[in-house]
Write a structure and sequence with these properties.
- It is a single chain.
- The protein is an alpha+beta fold.
- The chain has a single domain, classed as Gyrase A, domain 2.
- The protein has 3 helices and 4 strands.
- The longest helix has 12 residues.
Length: 85
C-alpha cells in the first residue's frame, strides 16, 4: 500500500509518498505530467505548476510541486493517478 500525505506550502504543494513506493514510480509520474501524458491533472492545474522536484528514496519519496497550486487540486489529481494507485 502507498500512503500519500499532501501539504500546502507557501510556494506550492509537497507530497510525501511512503510505504510500497519506488522513487522511479514518482519519476515516471513527473515525466508523464511534464510531457502531457498525464490524465490525472486538469490542463488548468498543469498550467499552474512551474516546477516538480523529486527527493528521497524507495519507501519514502517526496514530490514538491512549485507554483500556484492548491492542496485540494493535487489531492484530486492523486486520486485519479494510474501510476500511484
Amino acid at each position: 500500500m502507498i500512503k500519500k500525505e499532501v501539504e500546502q506550502k507557501e510556494n506550492g504543494v509537497k507530497i510525501n509518498f511512503s510505504g510500497a513506493i519506488a522513487k522511479d514510480t514518482v519519476f515516471t509520474m513527473v515525466q508523464n505530467c511534464a510531457t502531457g501524458k498525464c490524465e490525472c491533472m486538469s490542463d488548468e492545474t498543469k498550467a499552474k505548476v512551474k516546477d516538480m522536484v523529486v527527493t528521497g528514496e524507495d519507501g519514502n519519496v517526496n514530490l514538491e510541486l512549485k507554483g500556484d497550486v492548491s492542496e485540494k487540486e493535487i489531492q484530486e489529481a492523486l486520486s485519479r493517478s494510474k501510476v500511484v494507485n
